[in-house]
Amino acid sequence: MSVPDKSAFPTLNTPAGEIPADSPAWNPQRPSSMPHHRYQPAHDRVDVPLADAEREWPSRRIETAPLWVPVDLRDGNQALPEPMDTARKRRMFDLLCAMGFKEIEVAYPSASQTDFDFVRHLATSGAVAQDVTVSVFTPARPELIDRTIDSVAGLPRVLVHMYTPSAPTWRNVVLGRDRADLKKMILDAAGHLMHRAEQKLAGADVRFEFSPEVFNLTEPDFALDVCNSVTSLWDASPDRPVVINLPATVEISTPNVYADQIEYMHKHLDRRDAVILSVHPHNDRGTGVACAELAVLAGAQRVEGCLFGNGERTGNVDLVTLVLNLYTQGVNPMIDLSDIDAVRQVVEECIRIPVHVRHPYAGDLVHTAFSGTHQDAISKGLVRHAQEAEDLDVPASEAPWKVPYLPIDPADIGRTYEEVIRVNSQSGKGGIAHLLHAGQGLDLPQAMRPDFYRTVQQVTDDTGQELSGEELWKLFHAAYLAPVHDGPYVLDGWTTRQDGVEHEFTATVVSPDARTPVRGIGNGPLAALTNALVQAGVTVDILTYSEHATATGPDAPAAAYAYCRTAGQDVWGAGWDTSILTASVQAVMAAVNRAHGAARD
Ligand SMILES: CC(=O)SCCNC(=O)CCNC(=O)[C@H](O)C(C)(C)COP(=O)(O)OP(=O)(O)OC[C@H]1O[C@@H](n2cnc3c(N)ncnc32)[C@H](O)[C@@H]1OP(=O)(O)O
Ligand SMILES: CC(C)C(=O)C(=O)O
């Protein structure tokens, strides 16, 4: 094994002896030499005016779904190396509709001809159902507002979403405007938008949305002032509400700070019953989902995000995770994710970015346990689940879900149980038994499981590879079933006969040295078999024995397991046949051959 050259990491590990004086003895961490002093904490960058006594979100619960608004076709699209063309956009739009979204941001029509054309396509193709509102996005620039309005002509229900940056750095650096100047620019543009819509979209149901971009770094009094001025200008009313969308354009703080900011706005906005309070978290700190959830607790009624968290930089908040988080709290999420892989496939094909294997709910590996104790718990949990469903007299798909380590029933989102347990060197006997049960209907006796586990471990340790269910079955077959035909003692043409309580077993025992006709009597066929084997020089005690059908129906094979003491060893053998008697004889003979074969080797 090669050891890394430490000089390749010159900044790692500051010199010994620099443990901060206030560090407890149990914590030997040393200061990193990274320049953390360059960054300011959120509380030095923006005021959060919510008084402690005002704060209610920590004790609230989410009991209904907010209005989910996918922005995949705008915010998600503008972050793609290859933005979607009309065909891909249409595919995504149809998917979003099929999932149940009713308000969908479809484009930044003034950004490109492609975006403009897509909105025209929606307006002219009949793709938009009666109950779906199309949203389009525009900056506060008159000529771009005009282009945006032109794009939606003919659509019956439209939300026009206007944004301007409002945080100090953006005001100063990007726009070169002070607060008063920016407010004027916003109100001028909002007025222009309203009048243009009145002129050009007469007869359509047109509503407006305003976003103070980078709301989370904007002084709360300024954000409130601008939002209230806009809702007043647009004359927001309960029957024609305005959407006020408060984006965490770039995440800057722990989610509780965003929640405080949202609760402050929720409690202080004018015309509250005429405002739909919306949030639009990004995921720069990896806490977009937490921000959205706490924001809903804090009063948000609407959440903008993208499927699987596509979007600028680290992405928009992931709507799939949010929806299923709600679902797993027992709340109807109002969105259909019952075939998550189909959704994932369309999204991956449209945006050309794969979903990570560990992505919540949707990743290839998220319902899979490789580790032994998890597998054991899941396997027991699934058995208990089936039992509870039977006790409650409901289908398993309706019974309350309490399986350890699985926050959601994979079947609810179209996944199968096959992927739940996979076997490698980290796995244990429970998981191995589970796979054999799932694949072949085998119900391995508890006492046999450690025996097979050792065989499997040897293979997985040697190869470092995963074993599929089929490979496990082959291994089981080779270890316990095949020896019936492949060992020092093979039965040729055996028969049994029963006379009252007495059973007779006759056969010819073929060994490398001889063919020995044998006959034994016993109180059962296996007792008769072991008595017969004595005549061929084989002494065998059956220590435990069990059998079961592997499926329902007359043609289903039976499995039999025999633990036998013979040739000075205690060994397991198994049998597999449509006749239980044949399977049981095979199990004993397999054990005999495993022991005597090993004794000869
Ligand atoms: C957080 C977000 O997601 S916001 C949305 C971001 N999305 C996009 O930018 C994708 C689409 N954008 C584009 O196609 C282009 O940027 C366009 C068509 C909108 C504008 O293009 P251009 O006119 O070439 O301007 P450019 O992009 O270089 O610069 C932006 C200009 O708009 C100004 N601006 C930026 N945002 C806004 C806004 N919301 N309202 C008004 N003006 C704005 C900037 O100050 C800058 O003005 P300046 O030229 O006077 O310095
Ligand atoms: C809603 C808008 C302005 C946005 O995309 C953002 O702030 O991230």
UniProtKB/TrEMBL annotation:
Signal peptide annotation: none
Amino acids binding Mg(2+): 75, 280, 282, 316
Region (Regulatory domain): 483-601
EC number(s) recorded for this UniProt protein: 2.3.3.13
Subcellular location: Cytoplasm
Required cofactor(s): Mg(2+)
Keywords: Amino-acid biosynthesis, Branched-chain amino acid biosynthesis, Cytoplasm, Leucine biosynthesis, Magnesium, Metal-binding, Transferase
GO process annotations (BP): L-leucine biosynthetic process
Pathway: Amino-acid biosynthesis; L-leucine biosynthesis; L-leucine from 3-methyl-2-oxobutanoate: step 1/4
GO molecular function: 2-isopropylmalate synthase activity; acetyl-CoA C-acetyltransferase activity; magnesium ion binding
Catalytic reaction list: 3-methyl-2-oxobutanoate + acetyl-CoA + H2O = (2S)-2-isopropylmalate + CoA + H(+)
Start and end residues of each Pyruvate carboxyltransferase domain: 66-341
Positions of the UniProt region annotated as Disordered: 1-43
Gene Ontology CC entries for this record: cytoplasm
A Pfam family per the record: HMGL-like
Function: Catalyzes the condensation of the acetyl group of acetyl-CoA with 3-methyl-2-oxobutanoate (2-ketoisovalerate) to form 3-carboxy-3-hydroxy-4-methylpentanoate (2-isopropylmalate).
Family: Belongs to the alpha-IPM synthase/homocitrate synthase family. LeuA type 2 subfamily.
Subunit description: Homodimer.
Annotated protein name in UniProt: 2-isopropylmalate synthase
Gene from which this protein is expressed: leuA
